[in-house]
Structure formats: C-alpha cells, structure tokens
Amino acid sequence: MATTSPLDDELEAAYRERRPPVFECEDPATWPLAILRLLDSGQFNIAEHALRHLRAAFPALEYARNLCDMLDRMPQIKGQATFKDDASKDVQVVAHNSEVVVLLFCGGRHALGLPLPMIHNWLARLPANLVYLRDFRSVHFLHGVPSLGPTRDTTLAALRGIIASLNGQRIVCYGNSGGVFGALDYGLELGAEKVLCMAGVTNLAPASNIHTRYKTKALALKSQFPDACLDMREAYSRAVNPPSVCIVYGNSSWDDRIQAEQMGALSCVTLYGVKECNLHNIIIEVIRRGEYEDFLDWLVRPPEEKTYPRAATARTR
Are residues 54 and 109 in the same domain? Predict the structure, then answer.
C-alpha cells in the first residue's frame, strides 16, 4: 500500500498487527480523511478495521457511525472483479452484457455519496453497463467532460459513441448531489428513459437561488455560461417526451427540498422526501432504511412497467 501520511502508516500497521490504531495521537477529525483514502482505493479490510475501532473510541463521531452502517449493509460481489477506481479519470466504463447503459454523474469529492469502489458493490448487481462520469471543473457538467471533448456538445457526441459501443438500447441516468443537474441535463439530451436524482441541484438560475446555498455558484455559472439553460424545470417542461424522474431528498434538508419541489410540479417527476432526515448525503439514510435497492431496481426496470419505486409510492401525489 502506498502511504501519504503518518496516519496512513498507522492504520496499515494496526491492521497488520491486529491491534487498535493509536487514535490518541491525532485529533479524531483528521482520521476520516485517511480512512476515505483507503475506501477510495478499495482497501476495505484496512478501512473497516480502522472504522470499527474509531467508532468504539469516539461513539459520537457521526462519520464513523455512518460508514460502519454502510459497510454492514454493503452487498458482496460474487464472481466479479473488484472495481479499481482511478481517481485521475473522469470517465470509467464497466461493461456488462446488457442493452441498458447507466450514466452515473458524480457530485462532491467526485464520488456518488460513497467512494466509487464502495458504492460499486450495489451498482455492479444491476443488469446494466455502468459509465462513471466526473466533472473535475465542478461546473455541473455544463462544460462537458474533458476527456470526451472540450465542450458539452462534444461530450454528448462522445457519450453517444460509448453507448453505441456497448450496444446500448436503453439509457438511464443517475446523479448524486452536484451531479444531479448533469444527470437531468444529459438525460434529456440523450433521450434517457429515466433519471434518478439523489438530493441535488435542479435549478442553477440566479433568480431562483437568492436564498439558497447555491446563490454564489449560480451567479458564477450564469456569467460563465450565459446562453445555457440553468433551470431543468424549464427544460423538461418544454420537452415533448422527457425522461421519468425520481428525486430523493431529506424532508428536513431545506435547500434540497426547495430544489426537488421546483421540479415536482411536472407530471414526469416523482418526489420522495425522506421523513425526519436533514442529511444532504441522502444515500446514507436511504441505505440505512433498506430502500436504496428499490430505487436502483426502478431505474433499470423496463419502461413498459409503468410503476414508481415502491418506497416512493406512498409519498407522491
């Protein structure tokens, strides 16, 4: 294992020697970054050893509690190679013998709420090709994906080529946090059947974000992309046959709720507000409540099955 700090060395040594890490030598708030590096690189055994002991040493540390819960619920992949994430790549394709292509738009930390090698254990079970996409410029994919081309239009053309190379007949999109806007935008342009949004921004127009945490970003994007449509509600309302959209968010997360409800008036959109939840990283709570697999199943389900995710049915319209 290549280490980058004394913290990494200590976590590896503790695992190798089958002892608790010496957390007392550092502020507990510094350990999550070291553990995230392990998870990002797919070193689950060392990361889990550190997390279990970190949770025992600091029971009130929410980070350790949440990730231990995720590890407890993480499915095991049988008969498939572990996903080796290359953090330097903005496009990574995992091919599967399927007509379905899932375009996955990463958000914060260029992940999907969990490190890619971790969440891949859920996604790899889908009967679908997976295309992981990152926006290293953090402009909600409005500038495209650099390795696919210098603009959004060239990126769209390159994605059509990737889909064709995978023999994809059905396209669906998945966005997390900052990747939600890209999933909605590209899903509409590429003729996707469905878009699953995990608590993120749907409207980046400055006038709609005066009182949200996106205000500064919205002003900057309007300046950088003056001709772009920054309101997905507007774009979808104009579309003749828009994708079916499901937006999952915490009912008590104010900004996420505003963004979701702005889209909620459209007939193609289903909202699922997770009760008594103020988390922005909504995947933690959805997995904890045993509902995540249901949303993934809905995403890849054939279009003729005109049903909403079971988890969302009781809370929509």
Answer: no
Give the chain's largest Cα–Cα span: 62
Which residue matches tokens 């020697």? 17
Pairwise CA distance, residues 265 & 262, whole Å? 7
Its domain, for residue 52, covers: 6-73
| Amino acid code (one letter) for 36 | L
Q: Is the dihedral of CA 43, 46, 48, 51 positive or negative?
A: negative
Last residue of a domain, one of 24, 44, 73: 73
End-to-end CA distance of the chain, in Å?
51
Q: Three-state DSSP class for 260? A: helix
287 located within any domain: yes
- List the structure tokens of 63: 């980070």
pLDDT tens digit string along 177-236? 999 999 999 999 999 999 999 999 999 999 999 988 889 999 999 999 999 999 999 999
- Reading the block at residue 38, the tokens are 């392990």
Q: How far apart are CA 299 and CA 92, in angstroms?
A: 20
Which pLDDT tens digit goes with each residue over 264-276? Answer: 999 999 999 999 9
Q: Is residue 100 within 8 Å of 127, Cβ to Cβ?
A: yes
* 219, 122: one domain: yes
Residue 252 in tokens: 């008590």
Instruction: Please indicate, yes or no, whether residues 58 and 133 belong to a single structural domain of this protein.
Output: no
Model confidence pTM above 0.85: yes
